[in-house]
Amino acid sequence: MGKKALITGITGQDGAYLSELLLAKGYEVHGIKRRSSLINTERIDHLYQDPHVENYRFRLHYGDLSDSSNITRIIQDVQPDEIYNLGAMSHVKVSFEEPEYTANVDGIGTLRILEAIRLLGLGQKTRFYQASTSELYGLVQEIPQKETTPFYPRSPYAVAKLYAYWITVNYREAYNMYACNGILFNHESPLRGETFVTRKITRGVARIALGLQDRLYVGNLDAKRDWGHAKDYVEAMWRMLQQDKAEDFVVATGETTSVRDFVKMAFEEVGIIVSFRGKGEEEVAVVEEVLKECAVEIGHTVLAIDPRYYRPTEVDLLIGDASKAKEKLGWAPRYTLSELVKEMMEADMELFRKDLYLKEGGHKINSYNE
Ligand code: NDP
Ligand code: GDR
C-alpha cells in the first residue's frame, strides 16, 4: 500500500505540481478544494480520475481552512500519512484589503489542522508540512536570508504566516509531532496565479507581442526577488517530510533579480528589446529594437507605472541561502531563471495565440489583466 497524502490548496500552483509528484511516487492523493461558483480545478483537471475505476488514487473533498469541523472530519476520514498545508489567501497586496480573513485562513487555518491531528490521536502518524514563506523576513535584517535570520513581516499576509510558522514549531516541541516549515522563496511557473508579478508580466508581454494589448501597468519595479521554479520547490517539500527528524528549511536559488530585469527578460524572449526611461511613477519601458516578427513598433511605450499596485509597506529585497536544504535534503534547484522565463513566455504565447485566433474570427476575448 502506498502512502496517503492530504493537500490543502490543491487547486493552486503548488498543489498541482505536488499532486503530480506524489502520484508519480505511488501515493494516494487527497485534496481539499473550495466550493466555487465557477469550476476552479483547471490546474489539476489532467489528474482527475473516474472514481469508479479500480486503484482510484486522486480524490477531492470540499472544504475550507476557516471551518474546523470540516477540516477535522476530512482528516479523520482520510487518516493521512502526510499533510501539506498549501491552502492560503496567498496574495500579499490583497492581504492589506482582507487582513482579518487572511489571518483566519493563513494563521488560524494552520492551527485548525494541527489541533485536528492532535485531537484525532494522529500525532505520531501524520507528518505535517507548513507552507511558510520568505515574506516572513520582510524588512531586511540580513543578506542572504537563512533559517536563523530574524523575521520582520511587512504585510497582514506575512504576519498571519508568522503565526502559522510558530504554531507549527510549537506543536512540534509541545506534542513531539513531525511538523515542519518550508520557508520557500518566490517560485513561479506557467501555472502561477495571473496576478502575481511574474505571470502578470509574461501574460502582458505575450499579449503585447501578439497585438492584443497596448501596454502593461505594474507597480514597484525596484523590488528584488529570488525566483525559482515551482516544480523544483515541491520536490523540497516532499523531501522535508522524509527525514528522521522534523526541521525547518529555507528553499531558494540564491540569486536575486529586480522586477525591472524580469520585464526585460520576458520581452527579450519574444524578440523585443526595451529600455527604461524616467524615474518613479513616470518610469516607462520603450521599444528599442524588434528582433522577431511581432505587433509592436520601435519607440512604442509598452509598460508604465500605476501606483495602485504599490504596497503600503514593501519587501525590497529577498535572497535566500538554501545551504541547509542542500546539505540535509540533497536539494538544489534544477531550473535557471532564464529557463523559467522561457517556459512561462512560451506557455503564455501559446495561450494567447488562441485568443488571437478567436479575435480574428470575430469573437470577443477577455482582456482582464490586474
Ligand atoms: P495559490 O494562490 O496558487 O494557491 C492557493 C490555494 O489555497 C488555492 O488552492 C486556493 O483555492 C486555496 N485556498 C485559498 N483560500 C482557502 C481557504 N479559505 N480554504 C482552503 N483553501 C483555500 O498559491 P501557491 O500555490 O503559489 O502557494 C501555495 C502555498 O505556499 C500558499 O500557502 C502560499 O502562501 C505559500 N507560498 C507560496 C510561495 C510562492 O512563491 N508561490 C512562496 C512561499 C509560500 P482556490 O483555487 O479556490 O482559490
Ligand atoms: P510577492 O509576489 O508579494 O513576493 O508574494 P508578487 O509577485 O505579488 O510581488 C513581487 C514583487 O513585485 C512587485 N510588483 C508587483 N506585484 C504584483 N503582484 N503586481 C504588480 O503589478 C507589481 N508591480 C510590482 C511587488 O510590489 C513585489 O515587490 C509571493 C506570493 O506567492 C506569496 O504567497 C509568497 O509567500 C511570496 O511570494 C514568497
Automatic annotation (TrEMBL):
Enzyme class comes to: lyase
From what superkingdom does this record's organism come? Bacteria
Give the matching Pfam families. GDP_Man_Dehyd
Q: Which UniProt keywords apply?
A: Lyase, NADP
Reactions catalysed: GDP-alpha-D-mannose = GDP-4-dehydro-alpha-D-rhamnose + H2O
Q: Which GO molecular function annotations are given, in alphabetical order? A: GDP-mannose 4,6-dehydratase activity
Ranges where the NAD(P)-binding domain occurs: 6-344
Q: Answer whether the UniProt record assigns the keyword Lyase to this protein.
A: yes
Q: Which SUPFAM superfamilies match?
A: NAD(P)-binding Rossmann-fold domains (SSF51735)
Q: Which cofactor does it need?
A: NADP(+)
- Tell me, what does this protein do in biology? Catalyzes the conversion of GDP-D-mannose to GDP-4-dehydro-6-deoxy-D-mannose.
Per the record, the similarity remark reads: Belongs to the NAD(P)-dependent epimerase/dehydratase family. GDP-mannose 4,6-dehydratase subfamily.
Protein name from the UniProt record: GDP-mannose 4,6-dehydratase
Q: What is the species listed in this Swiss-Prot or TrEMBL entry? A: Shiella aurantiaca
